Amino acid sequence: MTEQEIINYIKEQLAAGHSPDEVRSALTATGWKSIDVEAAIEQALPKKVRPRSAETKKDVKKIKNKRIVLISGIIFGVILLVVLVTFVAKSGILKGVETQECGNDEACLKSALMSCTPATGLTSRGEEDSKAVSYTEVKGMKGDKCEVFVRIEDAGSVLGITVKGRSMDCEVPLSLLEETGTISVSNVDKIKDYCEGNLVEFAEQVVNTIQTQ
């Protein structure tokens, strides 16, 4: 028999229930050298798994501990993020300042204008036949000035000039707002340096016409 055949023979005998000593004796009796028999038996026997050393076990334990710490850190981070997002959503921290709707409440609009708090509202001037309705939007602070938009919503013509639809954008110092108490064409001489738009041009034209009469 070849070396591989003897190894296969030994495996068959061991599988049949014979002990290594019995197989060894039988092969030696048939003329096989003891050294060859021992080598074949060693090849035929199942390989034993080498037990882990103490250092290997420690390394494995360290790796497991690191994984546990890493996973715990990730879970904690996710929980913290969820809590933070929930808090921000409920508190409204990221929301912009809401614009107050004053409607026809002129006192509400004036209060918002004096503090430059975002608000919108309508103001009316004049009698029924010559009433002028203006829309005012207080946009809030822009640098050290208050940003305000004014548009004429309803009005007749003045000096043959159509007023309805004219508007102006203003950036007015708070000190001037406190002084005038309003942003309108009636005080155009004080606000014209801080406003621009066809409503300013109209107001200046009216003032100049009146002064020349």
Overview of the structural elements:
The mean pLDDT is 81. The N and C termini lie far apart (137 Å). This protein is 51% helix and 21% strand. It has a six-stranded mixed beta sheet. It has three domains: 3-44; 51-95; 100-212, no CATH class. With 213 residues, it is an alpha+beta fold. Helix 1 (3-15) crosses helix 3 and helix 2 (20-29) runs antiparallel to helix 3 (34-44).
Structure, briefly:
With 213 residues, this protein is an alpha+beta fold. It has helices spanning 3-15, 20-29, 34-44, 54-91, 106-115, 174-180, 188-191, 198-212, and strands spanning 100-103, 119-125, 132-142, 145-154, 157-158, 161-162, 167-173, 195-196.
Oligomer: single chain
Give the strand order of the largest sheet, numbering strands 1, 2, ... along the chain: 1-2-3-4-7-8
Instruction: Please give the domain count.
Output: 3
- What's the helix count? 8
Series of secondary-structure elements, N-terminal to C-terminal: HHHHEHEEEEEEHHEH
C-alpha end-to-end distance:
137 Å
Radius of gyration: 48 Å
Helix proportion range: 40-55%
Total beta-strand segments: 8
Major β-sheet profile: 6 strands, mixed
Quickly give the structural class: alpha+beta
Could you tell me the mean pLDDT? 81
Q: Catalogue the unreliable spans.
A: none
3D shape: rod-shaped
